[in-house]
């Protein structure tokens, strides 16, 4: 089996060669093999799971504030000038504001992680020769993944089955028009936007269904390559930029005053050491020792008030930006509404109430295997009599050209269909008998005529 860290040109393989390349089969992987590969190659994610290191870096980042650096310099000077009390007070103030900011941001980060764990995306794979749903992070190389409309592609893979499969690859190509995917073998030099036999992590299914053999996961995917190239530090907020500018200005003023006063003292023939101590003490006195604590306390208070309104503040310094916001655009579904739909009535094309429309809608919403939206769920929840007697035979998935989804269904019990036919036949027989009875009162000529008529009737029945 090839190492997942190597770049595999899987779009040049047919299905058999691709399965051999990743040591898999059309029956999928076993649970034991998938667990082994997950331990060997790691989870299917672009993130580094290094919580201890991230917490340490989060704590260190609290000291990057220019004002905090000035205070650290002032504490060092106080200690150098043997003013131990003042040095300890400054250090305590720094630690208080630093720990407060660190604790708030860590708590917010943990809360966000817990929320993300609640909304983890699942995908359907073939394990131990049967379908099962797993988290996207548990997908490994060699997995057989089933896709339908609305599904997110969990990793890079080769298409081994498809039915009118259209994928949105705007993340990679910038094109909003869905790409039709087909089974095939392509040249190694084929660019990414022309690889119609492949799917890529981060894209999603617009319509149709498909089965994919996973080749690359995590950072070895095309999305992982893009993520590494675009990886950069979190941009500074306007508040942080303002604090940095204020700190730089304070440092410049302090430095100018210290140099100027030291030079004046030297020109006035003051003792050199006394002049140095005086200017350094002045520098310590000019530093705003309580400013970091005041900023941290106020931002923490704002975060607490927002938490009461069910808003998690992950970065304290972002509160100032949020306060300066004049226009906020948000998707209303799930934000301003509950995202729940209920069926009120069903009408035909003439605007009249129609139970048949509701019945057909119920069949479509319940039996279709594509992406089910809230409207489908609302229709599926309606109870209808005798609905269980229908089963799905075939389906043409929804696509953006036809703008419809088509289903072929039949009665679940064929016996009922035969009973209906027998009932109709008996009815015709009774009708014919009545006709013959009435005819017997007539002449023989008329009887023959009626006999011919009965024969035609029986032919129509058959």
Automatic annotation (TrEMBL):
It is found in: Membrane. The chain crosses the membrane at residues 56-81, 87-103, 246-264, 276-300. GO terms for molecular function: ATP binding; ATP hydrolysis activity. The lineage of its organism: Archaea, Methanobacteriati, Methanobacteriota, Methanomada group, Methanobacteria. Its main location: membrane. One of its GO terms (cellular component) is membrane. Keywords: ATP-binding, Membrane, Nucleotide-binding, Transmembrane, Transmembrane helix. This is HAD-IC family P-type ATPase. SMART domains: Cation_ATPase_N.
């Amino acid at each position: 089996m090839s190492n997942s860290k190597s770049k595999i040109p899987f779009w040049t393989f047919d299905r058999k060669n691709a399965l051999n390349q990743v040591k898999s089969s059309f029956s999928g992987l076993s649970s034991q093999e998938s667990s082994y590969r997950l331990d060997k190659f790691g989870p299917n994610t672009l993130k580094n799971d290094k919580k201890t290191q991230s917490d340490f870096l989060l704590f260190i980042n609290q000291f990057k504030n220019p004002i905090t650096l000035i205070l650290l310099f002032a504490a060092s000077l106080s200690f150098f000038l043997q003013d131990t009390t003042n040095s300890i007070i400054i250090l305590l103030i720094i630690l208080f504001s630093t720990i407060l900011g660190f604790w708030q941001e860590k708590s917010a980060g943990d809360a966000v992680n817990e929320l993300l764990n609640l909304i983890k995306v699942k995908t359907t794979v073939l394990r131990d020769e049967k379908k099962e749903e797993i988290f996207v992070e548990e997908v490994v190389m060699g997995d057989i993944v089933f896709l339908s409309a609305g599904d997110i592609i969990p990793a890079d893979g080769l298409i081994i089955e498809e039915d009118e499969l259209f994928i949105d690859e705007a993340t990679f190509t910038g094109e909003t028009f869905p790409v039709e995917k087909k089974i095939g073998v392509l040249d190694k030099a084929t660019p990414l936007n022309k690889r119609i036999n492949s799917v890529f992590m981060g894209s999603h299914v617009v319509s149709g269904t498909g089965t994919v053999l996973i080749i690359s996961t995590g950072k070895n995917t095309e999305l992982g390559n893009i993520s590494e190239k675009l990886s950069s530090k979190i941009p500074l907020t306007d508040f942080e930029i303002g604090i940095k500018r204020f700190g730089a200005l304070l440092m410049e003023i302090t430095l100018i005053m210290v140099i100027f006063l030291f030079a004046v003292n030297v020109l006035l023939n003051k003792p050199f050491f006394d002049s140095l101590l005086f200017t350094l003490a002045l520098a310590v006195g000019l530093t705003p020792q309580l400013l970091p604590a005041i900023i941290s306390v106020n931002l923490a208070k704002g975060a607490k008030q927002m938490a009461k309104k069910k808003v998690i503040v992950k970065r304290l310094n972002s509160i100032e930006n949020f306060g300066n916001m004049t226009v906020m655009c948000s998707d209303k579904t799930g934000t301003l509404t509950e995202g729940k739909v209920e069926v009120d009535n069903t009408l035909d094309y003439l605007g009249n109430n129609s139970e048949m429309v509701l019945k057909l809608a119920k069949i479509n919403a319940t039996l279709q295997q594509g992406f089910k939206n809230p409207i489908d769920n609302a229709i599926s929840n309606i109870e209808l009599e005798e609905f269980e007697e229908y089963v799905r035979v075939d389906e043409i998935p929804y696509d953006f050209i036809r703008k419809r989804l088509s289903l072929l269904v039949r009665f679940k019990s064929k016996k009922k269909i035969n009973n209906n036919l027998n009932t109709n036949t008996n009815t015709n027989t009774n009708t014919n008998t009545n006709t013959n009875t009435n005819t017997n009162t007539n002449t023989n000529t008329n009887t023959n005529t009626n006999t011919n008529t009965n024969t035609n009737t029986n032919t129509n029945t058959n």
